[in-house]
Amino acid sequence: MNRPPPEPAVAGTTNSPSRPDAMDPLTQAVAPRAGQPAGHPVNFPRAPLYALAGLVLASLAAVTAVRLTGYGAVTVADAPPVAVRSFRFEDRPDGSIVVLDASGRHVIDTVAPGTNGFLRGTMRGLARERKRAGISAELPFEMTGRSDGKLTLADPATGRRVDLGSFGPANAAVFARIMASPGHGPGSRVPVTQ
């Protein structure tokens, strides 16, 4: 019996499935290593995989322990305050934000519509926390200038605090300008004495 020679396989295609000797080149088994029976896939050693999984789990456990207990967490004490001022921030119908002194009677600054995205985002986040807790928007926020030049904005009503220098000097400068503006009325600028 004369059989025709097999057709050569074209890369990226499969031979006809009707031929019993045809194999898909993409599903062929990898050539066996020494001592391994032919036709079996190559097994990756499990020890490195177990070691990697153990390292990931140990890292997660360590981070969880520090977050829950506080043990091993590094904290830096705040520098002493130099000045503390209280402000109210009010949205206006035209999209501007008016910065008022604590009494709400004297305008300290006006933020034009569409400008100062960092100030808008910061105040929006603090206002959202107040609204969620059912706290009045009329209460003032407290800005503290420290002896090391850092500036913090705190919401005494919710206990939330934002270190303004963490967002870069250009963003902190927006609040520093408000802090340095001349005060109007009693108690608008309170120097802190030690």
Summed over residues and divided by their number, the pLDDT gives a mean of 79
Please tell me what the overall shape is.
elongated
* Beta-strand content estimate: 15-25%
The helix fraction, in percent, is: 25-40%
Rg is 34 Å
Could you state the oligomeric state of the chains shown?
A: single chain
Provide the succession of SSEs.
HEEEHEEEHE
Instruction: Tell me the total number of β-strands.
Output: 7
Q: What is the tally of helical segments?
A: 3
The end-to-end span amounts to 109 Å
| Class derived from helix and strand content | alpha+beta
Question: Sheet with the most strands?
Answer: 7 strands, antiparallel
Stretches where pLDDT falls below 50 for ≥5 residues? 185-194
Task: Explain what this protein looks like in three dimensions.
It is a single chain. The chain is of the alpha+beta class and 194 residues long. It has a domain at 81-86 and 117-185. The protein contains three helices and seven strands; from the N terminus they run αβββαβββαβ. The chain has helices spanning 46-69, 117-133, 169-180, and strands spanning 81-91, 97-101, 107-111, 141-146, 151-155, 160-163, 190-191. Strands 1, 2, 3, 4, 5, 6 and 7 form a seven-stranded antiparallel β-sheet that branches. A hairpin with a 4-residue loop joins strand 4 (141-146) and strand 5. It is elongated, with a radius of gyration of 34 Å. The N and C termini lie far apart (109 Å). Mean pLDDT is 79; it is low at 185-194.
